[in-house]
Design brief:
Blueprint: E1 4-5, E2 9-12, H1 19-26, H2 32-35, H3 43-56, E3 59-64, E4 69-77, E5 87-94, H4 103-118, E6 123-128, H5 133-141, E7 145-155, E8 161-170, H6 171-177
Parallel strand pairs: 5-6
Antiparallel strand pairs: 1-2, 2-3, 3-4, 4-5, 6-8, 7-8
Helix pairs in contact: 1-3
Length: 178
């Protein structure tokens, strides 16, 4: 993935040297479940996922410029709910230590700018669980519009079935606001 920068962040490809930082936030029981994944039980679990990030090259490491520490991730994936090839689905996670500071809004806005100004993607979607108000606020601050709620469509690692709340932004929407 192309490296992107903001005032305080670097979005870059993952390396195996990021394992300790990745495991540090991925083991936190307050982080993964809100995004639908189980907290990492050990570094071996984190390493397997990290290697997948490296191989698939769809997920950026979010690096705090001030500390050079990986504090989260932001991925652009094939949208399983849209077969249209010029669509992407956004996913993100941030270390709890950095919540509430506008960091994810900064990262997402930079990713949106990259998608719509430097690629042929024409629509970006993002989903959150109804109980994930933090994610909802990020999405709304980044200008995505509510599309609807897919009822009982996501099987959580816990075995619970949750609704998925969908938002999107089109290239046309984005270009009309800049």
């Amino acid at each position: 993935m192309q490296t992107l920068e903001t005032d305080s962040l670097i979005l870059r490809s993952w390396t195996e040297n990021d394992l300790d930082d990745f495991y540090e936030y991925a083991k936190n029981p307050n982080v993964g479940p809100s995004a639908g994944w189980q907290p990492h039980e050990d570094k071996e679990m984190s390493l397997k996922i990290l290697q997948k990030f490296i191989t698939e090259d769809e997920v950026w490491a979010i690096v705090d410029k001030a500390t050079n520490k990986v504090i989260g991730s932001l991925g652009l994936h094939r949208d399983p709910k849209r077969e249209y090839t010029k669509s992407k689905m956004l996913g993100y996670v941030l270390s709890e230590d950095y919540w509430g500071k506008g960091i994810m809004v900064e990262a997402v806005k930079r990713a949106i700018r990259y998608l719509f100004e430097e690629t042929d993607v024409t629509v970006l979607s993002v989903f959150h669980f109804p109980f994930n108000d933090r994610s909802k606020r990020v999405i709304e601050k980044c200008g995505l519009q509510y599309e609807g709620t897919f009822r009982q469509c996501f099987e959580h690692f816990s075995g619970n079935i949750y609704d998925d709340v969908c938002y999107s932004i089109t290239k046309e929407d984005y270009l009309s606001k800049i």
